[in-house]
């Protein structure tokens, strides 16, 4: 029987497509280095983490470090497509391959300097992700006599306006909001004051403000539209796809209630909901968290580092390992001097700072050594 893996380095090798290469400052698949950053699709999501993990394992091997338990690197190849044939398949068909108490993946590790200390936001869980497929019906006619038909695009226009103006219910029940005093935020967060707190953070900590906004509400975002058969015909069928991210306490029934309210009074609209990923989480106070904090302190040579728990606004392959009982954290080990707004994951000019790549490798090395090395 194979030895149990004590620790797993998780990542993924696939990337999202590049829409228009001409908009990039540097070719998106060249890995060019400029101003201390490596530019390219996937640099931030998630090849930087994979590189850091591989370097940590290489250093352990080269230096002949003997491990008391197994260390595995498992990298999926379809995370950006949902992970069904990668970690999803492993979790369903061969969970023994993932037999380990601990894993570190993408989906967290944002460093924030506040109140005289460096705080890392540890990804202990994720929002749920659903996809809503909306059909908007009208009646067709020749475009020269549009009054003889009912243009489905006008109904779409009304729906899009409602989605743009949608004010979701505010919610401060996720774990991060219990730690806001760590960031020198004096007021206890609540549904009534969270927007004010976010506004105060936007000037000095825009990424943190964005995180607080995402973790205090459900989001419904229109992402794709299709419809119409000819330029001289009034369209009778338009299809709209929406991406939805839910908080842990928000069910599918809750989403249906919100959607029904949004489409109320607009005729000809039907929708279906596809559950892509359920909200998930791991415990915060664990041996892995303590070791990760120690590893980060050693790698950065700072003793003022603290961790706080948060759920990720997106979803990763961690949603397949957490239900197996594997404590899985999102942590990339970004350097505090690296501006996170420059990473632009999935966007034009995606990049990673060399400082973050180096600090990530050092942290992964210290972490593996602390957990596994014979001392």
Explain how this protein is built.
With 375 residues, the protein is of the alpha/beta class. The chain folds into two domains: 5-124 and 283-372, Aminopeptidase, CATH 3.40.630.10; 128-169 and 218-277, Alpha-Beta Plaits (2-Layer Sandwich). It has helices at 43-62, 87-93, 152-165, 194-201, 206-214, 252-263, 287-300, 318-321, 354-372, and strands at 5-12, 32-34, 37-39, 70-76, 102-105, 110-114, 117-126, 128-137, 219-227, 237-246, 269-277, 280-281, 305-312, 327-330, 351-353. The longest helix has 20 residues, at 43-62. It is globular.
What brief labels describe this structure?
Alpha-Beta Plaits, 375 residues, 2 domains, four-stranded mixed β-sheet, 29% helix, 15 strands, Aminopeptidase, four-stranded parallel β-sheet, alpha/beta, single chain
CATH class of the largest domain: Alpha Beta
What's the end-to-end separation, in Å? 26 Å
Can you tell me the CATH topology of the largest domain? Aminopeptidase
Helix content: 25-40%
- The number of distinct structural domains comes to 2
The CATH H-level homologous superfamily of the largest domain: Zn peptidases
């Amino acid at each position: 029987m194979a030895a149990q893996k004590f620790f797993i380095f998780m990542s993924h090798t696939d990337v999202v497509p590049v829409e228009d290469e001409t908009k990039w400052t540097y070719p998106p698949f060249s890995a060019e280095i400029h101003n201390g950053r490596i530019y390219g699709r996937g640099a931030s999501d998630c090849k930087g983490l994979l590189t850091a993990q591989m370097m940590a394992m290489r250093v352990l091997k080269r230096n002949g470090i003997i491990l008391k338990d197994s260390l595995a690197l498992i990298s999926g190849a379809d995370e950006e497509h949902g992970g069904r044939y990668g970690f999803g398949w492993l979790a369903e068909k061969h969970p023994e391959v993932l037999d380990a108490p601990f894993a570190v993946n993408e989906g967290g590790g944002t460093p924030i300097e506040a109140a005289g200390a460096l705080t890392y936001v540890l990804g202990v869980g994720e929002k749920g992700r659903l996809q809503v497929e909306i059909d908007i019906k009208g009646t067709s006619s020749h475009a020269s006599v549009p009054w003889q038909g009912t243009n489905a695009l006008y109904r779409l226009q009304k729906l899009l306006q409602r989605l743009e103006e949608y004010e979701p219910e505010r919610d401060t029940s996720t774990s991060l909001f219990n730690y806001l005093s760590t960031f020198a935020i004096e007021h206890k967060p609540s549904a009534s004051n969270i927007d004010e707190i976010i506004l105060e953070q936007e000037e000095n900590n825009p990424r943190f403000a964005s995180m607080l906004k995402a973790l205090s509400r459900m989001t419904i975002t229109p992402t794709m539209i299709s419809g119409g058969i000819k330029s001289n015909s009034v369209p009778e069928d338009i299809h709209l796809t929406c991406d939805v991210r839910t908080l842990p306490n928000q069910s599918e029934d809750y989403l249906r209630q919100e959607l029904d309210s949004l489409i109320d009074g607009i005729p000809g609209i039907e929708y279906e909901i596809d559950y892509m990923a359920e909200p998930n989480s791991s415990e915060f106070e664990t041996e892995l968290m303590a070791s990760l904090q120690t590893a980060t302190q050693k790698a950065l040579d700072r003793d003022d580092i603290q961790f706080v728990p948060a759920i990720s606004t997106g979803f990763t392959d961690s949603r397949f390992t957490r239900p197996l009982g594997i404590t899985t954290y999102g942590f990339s080990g970004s350097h505090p001097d690296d501006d996170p707004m420059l990473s632009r994951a999935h966007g034009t000019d995606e990049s990673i700072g060399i400082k973050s790549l180096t600090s990530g490798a050092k942290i992964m090395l210290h972490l593996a050594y602390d957990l596994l090395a014979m001392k």
